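Risk register update: the risk that structure generation would not scale has been downgraded. Supporting records follow, first protein first.
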Amino acid sequence: MRKCLLYRRREAKLCDMKDKREIIRTASPLGTLQLEFREGELTACRLVAVPPEAPVTPRSFAARQTIRELDEYFSGKRREFSVRPVPTGTPFQLAVWAALRRIPYGEVRTYGEVARMIGRPQAVRAVGGACHANPVLIITPCHRVVAANGPGGFGSGMENKRLLLAIETGDDRPFGMEW
């Protein structure tokens, strides 16, 4: 049986490698995206500061499908993802991320509107925190959430948020916002 080391905070723990993990780095207009899969399910899509890998053939169907759908999204051919991510988070974060996936392509919602969508109208700042902690960029579209008075923030950089919204709207200055 294969073994792995899990690092949690400052302690290392030896574990059995029961779950099958797959990590793929692929190029995108934003930079290198790192896709992480566990047992054939997408758990993360992050922007990382390393070059993409040489072309590899993903092992799982989910990985092949995710890469194909991201390529279609960036080329303007895909508006919805059929890939359903399975991120790890608190119940509140999971509710926010599910609400983000309901925001239509090319549209934005404010942090307050997302808070109302999940039935927590007073949790505007917490929604911002959940957006910042989103482990599945693009597929869980936190870039579609803006502040009531402007573009708001984006953990992967405001230029990337502008670029993603520009892809979706076809406008270099989406929603007339100052970037």
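Supporting record for the second protein:
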Amino acid sequence: MKKFSFILLMTVLAASMSAQDRRHQQSAEQRFSPERFEAQLQEYITKEANLTQQEAAKFFPVYKEMQEKQRIQFDRQREQSKIKPTDEQGCMKAIKESDEIDLELKRIQQNYHCRFLELMPASKVYDILKAEQNFYRHMMKNWGRGPQNWGRGFGQGFGQGQQNWPRMPQGFGQGQHRQGPPGNNNQR
């Protein structure tokens, strides 16, 4: 009986340790990975803007340079937001510094947009900027749904992933009035 109890105890302990190991491994896989995020962003922009390999090879090093400069300003913003001034003069200084950071971000963006235009036609740059905007919007929308959804729709084959994106109702934005419940054809 003691031998059976000992074997049962060891089996339960082994199963428990195995389950903890699996949970730890899953949580490590679900953590945010800047490298994975960057790879998904580049893949998405390349696909959506129809970039050739040559165009992508010219564009992404300059794009990464822009992101690094922007990151410095975002870090300044984050540090500034951690401290609440205690007096009017401190508040005024914080507001002005925040405005200066925003302006610097716009200057960086404008400078690099001009550089992008030197690398490729305006139509490609436009498509890149729209793709970037859509990527960030989609990622932020899925952010609150947990790490497993961060890249949802951006994995293998973007064509299939886009079916996960919400569709606008038929007639939305086309000047049509909202209709009542099904079967009710009265327009408002």
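Residues 33-137 form one domain. On this basis the risk owner (M.S.) recommends closing the item.
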